[in-house]
Amino acid sequence: MSKNLSQMNGSIPTNAAQAKVKEYGATETVPHSTARNMSFWDMIATWIGANANNGTWYIGGVVAGCAFGGALAVTLIANPIAYIFMALVGYMGYKVGTSTMALTRPSFGVRGSSLPTIVNLTSFIGWTAVNTFIAAISISFLLKSSLGWPAFGEKGSAKAMIVGIIIMSILHLVSISLGHRSVKLIERVGMILVCILGIWETIVVLQHVSLSQIIHWRPSNALSLPFGTAMDTMAAFSLAWIPAIAEFTRYTRKKSSATIAPMIGANIGLFWFAFVGIIATIAAAISTGTYNPNNSDPSTIASQLGLGWLAMIVIVITSTTANAVNLMAAGISLTNLSKKVKPMPALWAATICAVLLTFVPLLFGSFLDSFIAFLDYLGMVLGPLIGIMVTDFFFVKKRHYDPSAFEDTKGKYWFTAGFHLPALISWAIGVVAFILLHNLSFFKESIGATYPVLVLSGLIYWLLTRNRK
């Protein structure tokens, strides 16, 4: 009897330890008692690291086409709105315990959730490729200074870019090697380095060109960016993080860690590095006499301002911290398509796909054109999706989901052959509305189309489902 009692007592910490180290699939519920190990500060660090990166710098350089005042206004308006919605979806992940894409099952249906999951996969693999490419540009400049190889934009730079992509891909594989645990460690270390080096970059930029010069600079009419277009660009950039949020908030024990902490971290990282991107791009335009949004990537700007090798290392570090979140979201989304796909192999598969995609800009056209088209795609599909998700959980289902029914082919979330038609109809209307409104003068010059379409899709979904139990 004592032996049996000993075995029983011994099984408790063993099971608890297994729960703590397990990487949960998309539809698996993370238990509150044993496996929730991400603190308030972990979440702040994660989302500072996610947003304090080269992509945020680059987006700051793009919206600099609104001039300093317009770019700052866009940053201060578009992003906090997005992060309010991120907090709402973060709460959903905390309360239900599943991934973001699993949370689309009650609104889109058990089978229907595969559609937003595929969109999510393309989004986060695409973001990984974008950040990796920008970081590879930095490595090409480092290779130029150390080995004399041509840097990005120069004839024969393909060799340096390929080496840069390979180096970054190895770093990404390391960053997700232990799932959310290694991501947590990467973000803790990365936040400290990013803060130190980000302050240094901000100071150096302002030493080159005064803030007064930056404030009074204006782009040419041909290169100026309409305010509403900039709003859509920024909104899509920040909304793109929302489908990743529950991958982390499902591991939090407190509601504040799932809602307030991500908002704090994401806003700090975004405001800071977008600001650096805005002032650095304008400073480079003043110094060189030419504003070219095609060259607003951090590495080119850092090279033009003579910021040196340390700035390039910052860009590499920030790419690693951001892509750890991207790859985590992409890999866990993949497990929502089939329970046969296990979390860790899914993370590795997502990383390999992102590596392959990163080579595409070397073969085709302008990186800026590809980047803007990618953001337009995200705004078009993610705005309506998020509007439907939030409306379903908070207004239709009254903050109650049953995760035990997420896999049930005869349960409450099966709907019509596994698809919930009101969600699909609302999503389709939202996509069409974005296409129609995006280039209308009123929306281009004022509020953009992304947020109006988000609200419209949620409203249509509520109208289609309000009388259903």
UniProtKB/TrEMBL annotation:
Any Pfam family: Transp_cyt_pur
Membrane topology: Multi-pass membrane protein
Top-rank taxon, per record: Bacteria
Principal subcellular localisation of the protein: membrane
Compartments reported by the entry: Membrane
InterPro entries named among the record's database cross-references: CodB, Pur-cyt_permease, Pur-cyt_permease_Fcy2/21/22
Entry keyword Transport: yes
TM stretches of this protein: 57-77, 83-103, 124-143, 158-178, 190-209, 229-248, 260-286, 306-334, 346-368, 374-396, 417-440, 446-464
Entry keywords, A to Z: Membrane, Transmembrane, Transmembrane helix, Transport
Homology family: Belongs to the purine-cytosine permease (2.A.39) family.
Name of the protein in its database record: Cytosine permease
